[in-house]
Amino acid sequence: MIDGVDCSYANTSSIPHLVVVGGTSGIGLALARRHQMHGWRVSVVGHNPEKIKMLNQSHPDITTYACDLTDAVELEKLLQQLSEVCFQRLIYSAGSYFNERIHTLGRVQSDQMLAINLQAFEHIFCWASAQLKRQVEKQPVTCPATYTVSDATLGLICMASIAGVLDYPYASLYAKSKRAMIATASAYRCALQPYGIQVTCIASGYIDTQALRDLNEGDASHKPFIMSTEHAVDHIMQAISEDTELAIFPWTMRYITRILNRLPKPILHQILRNKLDRQ
């Protein structure tokens, strides 16, 4: 019992609870549904009223919360609501993208991308880590030598991007915010290790979601090494199960980024500038 909330996750009869921020569609919803298939109770956070309404109708067993992550008042209200429930895993899957190579980045787009991709992420991870640490402190101490990762391991997961893996001066605001997300998740992983709390960051390539298709006039099949949502979920669930710090996939993109990061910065800058300006 923590602050009046039953958080006896160690009890095998209890059902583990997942919270997905940005879970009303796309990869976030796919991860929520996969966890449901594995016996998890699921809550999702979204901002689009129509998507929330459709999800409530199609999956009434999923609890939904409405929140505009760019609104500080709404975000605080959301965290107050979530503080009244107990969860064992939180996935931050919210994201905002604007093609800075084609369009001029304005104030509205800049504020939104920074708020969702970095500021709200940091705020929620800070709050969620505190919630999970309280659970650990209320439970018997587990010997690190015998600690193993299980399906109900306390954990934080965030959805970054392959764009954040490359370190180059021409990077967009989106890429820089995802790179900051990767670094932040790594710091949390180090800090939460003594508590036995898992932190995994996902840096995937292109995933064939409706959002990506909408950004590409309904067809994203031309994107290099694009993968299906189900295939991506398989990779993510494996990364969580194996307690991977930074999961980069597909493997082709992982090796390409590894090679590119070894190039001198001016060469990398020129290669990516020429490539990205054609997109």
What does this molecule look like?
This protein has 279 residues and is α/β, with parallel strands linked by helices. It has a single domain, classed as NAD(P)-binding Rossmann-like Domain (Rossmann fold), CATH 3.40.50. The chain has nine helices and seven strands. It has a seven-stranded parallel β-sheet with strand order 3-2-1-4-5-6-7, with helices on both faces. β4, α4 and β5 form a beta-alpha-beta unit. α1 packs across α7 and α4 packs parallel to α5. The longest helix has 31 residues. About 6% of the residues have low confidence.
Total number of helical segments?
9
Mean pLDDT: 84
Largest sheet report: 7 strands, parallel
Give the N-to-C terminal Cα separation: 53 Å
What ranges have pLDDT less than 50 throughout 5 or more consecutive residues? 9-13, 141-151
CATH topology-level fold name:
Rossmann fold
How large is the radius of gyration? 19 Å
CATH architecture: 3-Layer(aba) Sandwich
- Percent strand equals 5-15%
- Structural class call reads alpha/beta
Provide keyphrases for this structure.
9 helices, 7-stranded parallel sheet, 279 residues, Rossmann fold
Short description:
It contains nine helices and seven strands.
Question: What's the helix and strand layout?
Answer:
Layout: E1 17-21, H1 26-37, E2 41-46, H2 49-58, E3 63-66, H3 72-82, E4 89-92, H4 107-137, E5 155-159, H5 173-192, E6 198-204, H6 210-215, H7 229-241, E7 246-249, H8 251-261, H9 265-276
Parallel strand pairs: 1-2, 1-4, 2-3, 4-5, 5-6, 6-7
